[in-house]
Amino acid sequence: MTALVQSLGTGILIGLVYALLGIAIVIIFKASEAFNFAIGEFLVVGSFLFYVLFFDYGLPILIAIPLGLLAAGIVGGLIEWFTIKPLLGRSPISMTMITLGLWFFMRACVQLIWGSHSYSFFLELPDITLELGGLFFLSDPIWAGIFSLATFGLVLIFLFRTRWGLAIRAVSEDQAKAMAFGINARFILLMIWAISAACITVAGVMISNFGALSVGSAIVGLRAIPVVLIGGMDSIGGALAGGLIIGISESLAGTYIEPYGLVGFKDVAPYFVMLIVLFIRPYGLFGTVRIERV
Amino acid sequence: MLSIENLRVVYHDVISVLNGISLEIKDGEILVIIGANGAGKTTLLRAVAGMIDFYDGDIIEGDIKIQGVSIKGLDSTDIMKRYGLTYVMEDRPVFDYLTIEENLKAASYSRWDKHVKTDMETVFEYFPTLKLLKNRRAGYASGGEQQMLAIGMALMTKPKIMLLDEPSLGLAPLITEELFRIIQKLNESGITIVLVEQNAHAALNIGNRAYVVELGRIVLDGQAKELIHNEDVREFYLGAGETKRKSYKDAKRYKRRKRWL
């Protein structure tokens, strides 16, 4: 019983980080129907930007975090400006292809600038390791959960409580209509990419904090694929649900299946769950049901 | 005054839709543009509203001027902010998943002044039904309500010139009548209206002047009231030409007649 609660708890904490990766994909998909395959590289670039500010320049963490997010947002915006913006109004497939190209391009850039070796990564956050009876939660995953949830909440507030959020939702529904009513769709798309890049960076920093940061960390970003496919590509709530499902299935597989000799099944379990969900609900659990007038 | 001079528009570099169209819109009038499907009416409005890029179209010749200043190549947002020109696209351009109130707010995005609330009340005065439904998602509103919302959204942008693309599309005749009454009222409040319509009879009845577009050119223009009685317009757009049945040989006359003027 303790083992079950333990792995559920661990799963939820890491799941919140995955949910953040999910929402980063979802807001871009909603706005332009393109899938950002370069998410892993965004994660690495964002984390390295934070690394430079925090470790190389030694800025205090409360300054380094907002500055790092801003830098990541600017990079995300610049990438959108040069690669995605010219394609406004064209097929979403071409945008998706662009992100595939970005994947390799950004990886090469990271290797050029920071090399391929690992950088040790340790945020000196207050120790909040939790020990309750037989349960034991490490400080880092708890912080990861807290930061991810807070970021997720901020994004939701931004989307549903501000005029830009309303504009984002309008553009997400139809770019042409939004433009006709004076919403600058090009600028809104830029903003979406910047927000997405900032979200990915928070997740990236949290994940790097578990161990080290290197070019190879990008692989974690691909966890976003099962997250959004399970939750539904265009559902923000689905990103949260998908993230939690992935996190929990991962840690349950680690606790109950790996001991039987299936080492590494932990990494496969999310895709297993994804397959099952897609068999039953091809649009994901919370994929949009199109509005039909009666 | 908005003037369009010898405008040529090409889609995807090869499909020529507007072949040198010229027209003039005077301040404060209701200008009606009628024409068959594919004549280029919607393209004309897109070009004027600065949205032709979005549809992969290009203005390859000619110019669009407002009060003598060229607006060719400007972004739709700029045109709206600087010249108060709002384009209401065809087929009820509302955001289905936003509530009616959110739709109106979204349309006021380009403004930063403090009168958004009072303007929303004005819209609700024009369209009282919208007020009752304001917390409902626009996708669930009826066709008439959606079209009224679309015009309400256009009003939220504080337009001086409003381009309406087939507002009567798919609406019952009674609703259309009400809608046109409101359009007339808006015009009386000082908004210049460009009305593109298939419903030629209703449109010509409220319009001041009218143009007939065919194959990307203006083929006929005049006072709206006169055009209703024009023999060709009656035959091709009002379906009420000569009463006696024609043979197919006579129907060909339409194709042979290349020059209207």
Structure explained in plain terms:
The complex is a heterodimer of chains A (294) and B (261). Chain A has helices at residues 2-32, 39-56, 61-84, 92-114, 139-161, 163-173, 175-180, 185-208, 218-221, 224-231, 236-257, 265-280; strands spanning 119-120, 130-132, 135-137, 212-213. The termini of chain A are far apart. The radius of gyration of chain A is 19 Å and the shape is globular. Chain A has twelve helices and four strands. By secondary structure, chain A is mainly alpha-helical. The mean pLDDT of chain A is 89. Chain A has a two-stranded antiparallel sheet. In chain A, strands 2-3 form a two-stranded antiparallel sheet. Chain B has one domain (2-94, 153-256): P-loop containing nucleotide triphosphate hydrolases (Rossmann fold), CATH 3.40.50. The longest helix of chain B has 16 residues, at 173-188. In chain B, the strands form two sheets. Chain B has a six-stranded mixed beta sheet, sandwiched between helices. Chain B has a four-stranded antiparallel beta sheet with strand order 2-1-4-5, with helices on one face. Chain B is globular. The chains are: A mainly alpha (294), B alpha/beta (261).
- End-to-end CA span of chain B: 24 Å
CATH architecture of chain A: Orthogonal Bundle
**Major sheet of chain B, described briefly?**
6 strands, mixed
CATH homologous superfamily label of chain B: P-loop containing nucleotide triphosphate hydrolases
**Sequence of secondary-structure elements of chain B:** EEEHEEHEHHHHEHEHEEHHHH
> What is the multimeric organization of the chains shown?
heterodimer
What portion of residues of chain A belong to β-strands? under 5%
Strands of the largest sheet of chain A, in order across it? 1-4
Helicity of chain B, in percent?
Answer: 25-40%
Mean pLDDT of chain A: 89
List keywords for this structure.
heterodimer; A: 294 residues; mainly alpha; ABC transporter involved in vitamin B12 uptake, BtuC; two-stranded antiparallel ribbon; globular; B: 261 residues; alpha/beta; Rossmann fold; 4-stranded antiparallel beta sheet; 38% helix
